[in-house]
Amino acid sequence: MTWPKIMAGALAPLALAAAAAFGGISEVKAFSVYVSNEKDNTISVIDSESLKVVKTLKVGQRPRGILLTQDGSQLLVCASDDDTVQVIDVKTWEFVKELPSGPDPELFILHPSGNPLYIANEDDNLVTVVDIENNKVLAEVPVGVEPEGMGISPDGRVLVNTSETTNMAHFIDTETFEIVGNVLVDSRPRFAEFTADGSQVWVTSEIGGTVSVIDPIAREIIKKIGFEIPGVRPEAIQPVGVRITKDGGRAFVALGPANRVAVVDAKTFEVEKYLLVGQRVWQLAFAPDESLLFTTNGVSNDVSVIDVARLKVVKSIAVGRFPWGLTVSKD
Amino acid sequence: MSIVGVHTDTSRQSEPEPPEPEPRKRLAALLAATIIVSGGLGFAGAGWAAEFARIPIAYLSQVMERPPKLSNLDLPPEDQGLAGGRLSIADNNTTGRFLQQEFVLEEVEVPADGDPKAAFQALLDEGKQFIVLRVPAPALLELADMAAGRDVLLFNVGAPDDRLRDADCRDNVMHMAPSRALLADALAQYLAWKHWPGLFLVVGRRDGDGLFAEAVRRAAKKFGNKIVEERRWAYGPDARRTAQSEVPVFTQDVEYDALVVADEIGEFGEYLAYRTWLPRPVVGTQGLTPTTWHRTHEQWGAAQLQSRFKKTYGRWMTPLDYHVWAAIRSIDEGATRTGSAGFAAIRDYIRGPSFELAGFMGQKLTFRPWNWQLRQPVLLVSPKALVSVSPQPGFLHPLSLLDTLGLDEPESKCRIP
Description:
Chain A is mostly beta strands. Chain A has one helix spanning 13-21, and strands at 32-37, 42-47, 52-58, 63-68, 74-79, 84-89, 95-99, 105-110, 117-121, 126-131, 136-142, 147-152, 158-163, 168-173, 179-184, 189-194, 201-205, 210-215, 220-226, 242-244, 250-254, 260-265, 271-276, 281-286, 292-297, 302-307, 312-318, 323-328.
């Protein structure tokens, strides 16, 4: 089953406004948002046109990390408690195969070329590199305790993995599979995201309550961003997911049990605004044209939709229990 | 000696030292957390030491005597505490690989009727500076005084006595274990939040029961609950077969909301639930119980520590395992953040304002500078469910909500210089 491509004229006023705000975009394609529900063992599929769940798919146990292949034809899901990565055809919804993921896969990322896949094996202190076409493990890289966050440079040369109990961002050469450097960050680093130009990598620290902006060449922290929200106790501010606009202008940081997404000026590193979303906001994903940002809210069991141009939360969509990760199709 | 390979004070002197393993092999072995590396700085291999800075840690534990009990259903694991320490060392060495730091654990066990002082003195003579202690309060005070004035930092993982965080506090002891007051406050907050203020306190015959009862009374006053009745269960475990007739009579003629039981070793507390005259919940040392770690705890990444522990040791992690894990992780935090293996740098970091420990409790854990108690949330559990986590909503504090639990600065008579 495919999602119909719809012209802008047929879209909800919300999407129209967003498209208009981005100027020059006369046509917006419908897309799908795939959400992994950690406690339900399902994937919720949200249609961008109706902003409703149109399908719920049963998958393996404790689904967390979720990605689409480069061509958008297959969905990859970390079924953490089944110690596997499941591959699902998004047209037929059939399981195509399982990838040799190593134990307890939590988060993963694809090489910009579409292959290989780099998987964080949380229980075994490893990053597993898998050729997704041949189903072969290319390498296992020993990293720190409880590896989780995975970021890759736009040129595909440097992989960054964060280890939650070691509190480091490990820089891994994707040719040699060797760790070439480690940057100590604040407690419990959970996510790593490169800027589109590759000049910075942003690493969130959940317990430390900060975001470290790292120069990946010098492998030094150039700025540590902190957060203060009136009426929210500092311990509740726990940064997890982060996404940065392609133009490098703005970053959005999910703040966990603070139930807010921080909007950060990515040039000055100043926090511009906090957007109230659902409870325990975890991961973030942009619409293909960056007009919308979707958030998974683990405790309120919903997805918040943020209008990126207006910096407003415009909708919340009920999904399964403990929504964890999400990914968005190109069309 | 029940634990294989543990070195007592005497065996340490006489046993031949194991050959120095290859660096990589040793790391692998440490990661597997199965071997015990004995000795300290004294026999560090030259090549290895040149590359890796070594941070020796000692775990001194006195076996607790087990009097005849109600039940042998849940025997304490023989490696309780030790397993937490070994896992922590393995975690630290995974991190240490990137910083050229190596952590080594020396394990010393003293029998229940033994004297931990001699074993402790031997550790001091060896130059051990970080020592994790699982000994009763009187021994802890003696050992702390033996180490006074030296460059030694102690971690209390077993003694819950409030006096150690109060008038009898010592500047060289960091308390990983919660005090009875901390646990009782966590429970009292929940009872207040539930609007179950009327408490019927049942106290066992042992010293610890009296101390727990004292903490319950203090907590009731602090959070506006009321002890409406207090009775002493003096019969120990003798009612094993007659509880159905004894307990209703014992609990008659009182109006209350919850029955709080003070029975730390589990002599009779399990008899009470479902047998009280009035249908009321049982809380305290049995029933709904305050604790730092439990097999039902899976939030905030705890599932990962649980799973790592269970895979390695084939059993669930206990609170004592968790306290030892947290103590050794704290030392690592000091070593990692300062990039140093030196005692002063690590100690000052642990006791300084930047210290924060990610302990799978949903927020950073820090130390109270007035008595060195670890600030920590408390789980309220029934045998197969996590019921709640304190502090409860609405109990406010100007500094940290965690300071609503246990001896807050104005409440503590501890005056660390």
